[in-house]
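Please check this chain.
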Amino acid sequence: MAETRSTCPYCGVGCGVVIESEGEQITGVRGDPDHPANFGRLCTKGSTLHLTATAAVTMQTRLLQPMRRTQRGAKPQTIGWDAALDGAAEKFAQVIRDHGPDAVGFYVSGQLLTEDYYVFNKLAKGLVGTNNIDTNSRLCMSSAVAGYKKTLGADAPPACYDDLRHAQCLFITGSNTAWAHPILFRRIEDAKAANPAMKIVVADPRRTDTCEIADLHLPLQPGTDVMLFHGMLHLMLWEGWTDAAYIAAHTTGFDELKRTVRDCTPERVAQICGISKDDLLEAARLFATSAATLSLYCQGLNQSSSGTAKNAALVNLHLATGQIGKPGAGPFSLTGQPNAMGGREVGGLANLLSAHRDLANPAHRAEVAALWGVPSVPEKPGKTAVEMFQAAADGEIRALWIACTNPAQSMPDQATVRRALERCEFVVVQEAFSTTATCDYADLLLPATTWGEKDGTVTNSERRISRVRNAVRRPGETRDDWAIAADFARRLQAQLGSAATLFPYADAESVWNEHRESTRGRDLDITGMSYAMLEAAPQQWPLREGESAGRARLYEDGVFPTPDGRARFVDVAYKPVAEPRDARHPFSLTTGRLRDQWHGMSRTGTLGRLFGHVAEPSVQMHPQDMARRQLREGELVHVTSRRGSIVLPAAGSTDVGLSQAFIAMHWGGEYLSGRSSTGERLAGVNVLTTPAFCPDSKQPELKHAAVKILKAELPWTLLAMGWLPEDAALRVHEALRRLMPSFAFASCVPFGAGGALQGGAAERTGVLFRAAAYEAPADEVLARIEALLALDGADSLRYADRKHGQRRAARLVRDGQDARLEAFLLAGDTRAEAWIKALLQDRLPAQAYGRQLLKPGATAPAGVAARGKVVCSCFGVTQTAIAERLGDVPGSDEERLGALQGALKCGTNCGSCLPELKRMVRASPALATAS
């Protein structure tokens, strides 16, 4: 077995991993104990990375050869690399000649490596001559970039992970850190345990798992963050909690800001934000008077039409109180993607240039042109993400290159995005996974390498650059992203008649060396950093030539990268959300992450066990809102915004406030779909979200949309589930996905069990298909579902009542003296789903239940009960098992948690389930201890 050190491809924490491989197969993964981001820890996603890279997964989900469609909607055909790239170069050259360089666009990703990003940036701005290159990091971090630049002078997070150990107050706002950055949250738990006096404030409209560790939760109304921060500053001024000496020595612009916050009285702030004046005062006191305050923030601030204002208003608090430039203090933006920071470093956004240079600055443009050896870099601002797809929908952009991202799932206002992809003359999708929704729109599909196969670097949230290394050879005909872009660029140069040698790279390191030189003298200077140095250990920037280590924290001397060396207070006004609630759309919808899933689930969605914690899509509503609308748990509802509508089950939760709703961001058309009564396709949560964006950062307001929620009268329902062979499960999921538009509502998700941690049982994967309609669909649709789940053979029990729209099927497999349920279909009446699902998922003896399996509405047999959701994904421990065990354990909450972990092992591996376990312990009454 070989071992290769690399970096996790999920969130911006940037955890080090050790990849285990045998031959050409990745066989295991564990946390790297020497990596300073995680010290060996991994979350549920990271610890299962190797399972997403098995041969079976690769053969079913990966794009392994270049493919081309001769017409839209047709099945793509395999072609060679030369034909693929020559054809792409000819088409792009033709568009550029006929319509100019701004008629093409490049949409890339924060999951690319820095080397990939650099080549794409040079391709667009240096060769094509367009600034139409943007990234899904625009949806993620661009407001943080703009906020840092406006206040501190540069896009450079000033704090580091080690500051958690020194902080006396943590102010977490707009971040469900427990789920979005789980390993960082483990460090927060450690810091709190080591220093119980440390206070934690969480500002979030929802009561998330992050709130479980909070001393104070501020459940503010969505979009009111600027008012909250101004209200806190108002109180700091009133109480004398600002640092006048720091303000005078190191900042400008405070007097203008004071005039604005003067009107943000506690009464006004409490009314607008929906919090109490006492809680507002306590939050301001803790922030201002603690010896060291560290703020952590993410998409709750960034994904907003006021995203830059929210970021700046929070940084204002740090400057006003001197809570910056010292251990344990500072405004710390948590990067969403593994290399959103690296993309910003190379200028991979429509308004930036290499090494944090500004496109609007003529001197910066000249510097980059000289570095690249081109006459000039275009000065016209490029189209940002939302603008780019709008331009394609309008026919302005005619050729679009999409790399390592899935805009047909992740972009807001999906109707416009899909119209753009349909109208665009030529769409190239450079992708590792063939199963993403965007692949359906591609004229040309180019197979890229992914985690475990690539070589390069990434930068995490604390400015730490880590190596990404390949553990196995590239499968099929896949190529590294930078190599694809460079090969295309050379062919495009020939088509455009350019003789310059702009892309001479032999390997990823040669790209890195050019990028490194571009940073000389800049705020992120890494001229002292090399691949050889990174082989020894990850490094933080800046690390200049001649230095042996980077800087853990910035601005300790109070000098900022502005013309006068002073930080800027930014006077921003509070503005409500772009799309406020009204009588027609009375709910505020927000979106966010699930604990065990990542983005569009192209990788995590291949592993059934990661659906255990949240098995299916739903919209969360407050129970009182459900009661007012006479909705029961699990009933289907129409969720409708001004742009579109989807159908999905309602779930009651006191974690959301009144008149609020929540849908996880991951549920795209690959897992949630349907068709309206007028034939319009309904696909994924981003059908609902608004393209309105922040005027400074151009980041869209994905965190808020006004919606109405109405009961969906869909009387005919269907549920089909089945265990499947490892080499067929994902292929069946993809085939079932194609059937979803046959229904008014449909969801299709994997489910799973087993694995090395779960008692040594073999990893098993199945597929769950749920649907609803106004009436039963054609028999051939149901027959197709049965065939895909192998319910059409002689070993299946069957029942059909066509008159009443009823249909049943069950497949039993002999297991010793008994039989186990392997698959079933309930159509027309799904009331028996709870116990039949338990029978299948828990692999209970089913020999005696043949008749009941086929009887509509049959009640649960004795001894067969619903299993409850999985809380601990590592060991497959369910809510039911935890509740039963807690009922037998006396003692304190800490003692009961320990006994629970000792008995069931839950929470003893990755720790992602610990906040939920602690909540369950507190909520469960303890047995009286014997006297």
